[in-house]
Amino acid sequence: MARRVTLSRRAALAAPALALLPRPGWAQGGGQGAGGYPARPVRLVVPFAPAGTTDVAARILAERLQSRMGQPFTVENRAGAGGNIGSDVVAKAEPDGYTLLMQTISSGAINYTLYGDRMPYRPEDLAEVGLLIRVPNVIFVTNSLPVRTLGELVAYARANPNRLNIGSSGAGTSLHVTGELLKMEAGISMAHVPFRGAGPMMAEVMAGRVEVAVDNLPSAIGHIRDGRLRALAVTTRERTPALPDVPTTAEAGLPGVEATGWFGIQAPARTPRPIVERLGAEIDAIVKEPATWARLADLGGMKPGLTPDGGTNPAAFTAFVRSEIARWGEVVRKSGASVE
């Protein structure tokens, strides 16, 4: 019988401004050409609860876009359904550049196959703008659990089948899927406990009511460094300099448990191309700011790396998203993944 699998802090940015002047003949949308954009505040929808990596990344980006573009970029959290609720809000918004989405691997790739016909939007309903950051996932446990390595966790779970809970920031997220991959690869049973975001999930792990969890590294790293959570492994091919003493899942004997989260900006599909390109150029400039990456790297962040110079642009992000949809779709199909 196939196992059921459900996939799915802070930093400041600073750098020279990028001069983008209006050009004659640029397309119009919502009464605005890109040359006059933005002329009013922009809403940045985060499809997960506050305090998680999606929210942290969005607020970092919003701060820098506001500074560079001269209008407020306001973060709005619309959590639920593994990111689908907030993503659908943007997919159905006016395509004028004033409603943007902080998209993730979950609602931007995994969920299309996972939810199937229940998905309220499709890939063609959203336009890719730029990839902001990639991050490792980290597997960690409550301090009261008597394990200090991933191998010890596997042994403990085998000796105590179905005794452990494993938390994630929501059913259908990449964090849920990473936990399910762990169970599949290790041949262990743990009950998945989904939360409406990383903040409430980590609170339960620190309190000992959930013993094991998976999260994106940036939102968990502060608790790990302060000793409130015990990290067992990161899910990337190489160790992260942010936690150099924490081994990879491959080093722990589980190379199949590999997953890298990502966070980028999408807009409604019919947003005028000049606005998409303008925003994409701003994001590319932001991810190349040295001060940004000194701090994001300390949190475990990795650069987009979509263009030869390590940056991002709308076309490269589009190709990346399509490849992620195909990759995770195959994982969902092979694993028998589903959501209730």
TrEMBL record:
Signal peptide: 1-27
Keyword hit for Protein transport: no
Pfam families: TctC
InterPro entries noted in UniProt: BUG, Bug_dom1
Keyword Signal set for record: yes
CDD domains reported in the protein's UniProt record: PBP2_Bug27
Alphabetical keyword list: Receptor, Signal
Family: Belongs to the UPF0065 (bug) family.
This protein's name: Tripartite-type tricarboxylate transporter receptor subunit TctC
Provenance organism: Muricoccus pecuniae
